[in-house]
Amino acid sequence: MTTPRNDLTDCAHILADEKHESGLAGQITARGPHDNTYWTLPLGLAFDEATPNSWLLIDEQLNVLEGEGAYGIREPNPATRFHLWVYRSRPDVHAIVHTHPPAASALAAAETPLIVGHMDATPLFDDLVFLPEWPGLPTADREGEIIAGALGKKHALLLAHHGLLTAGRSVQEAAFLAVFMERMAQLQLNAAPVGGVQPIDPTEARRARDFLRTDRIMNITFNAWSRRAARQRLGRAT
Question: Where are the alpha helices (DSSP H) in the chain?
Answer without folding.
Answer: 4-17, 81-89, 102-109, 141-151, 171-191, 202-212, 215-237
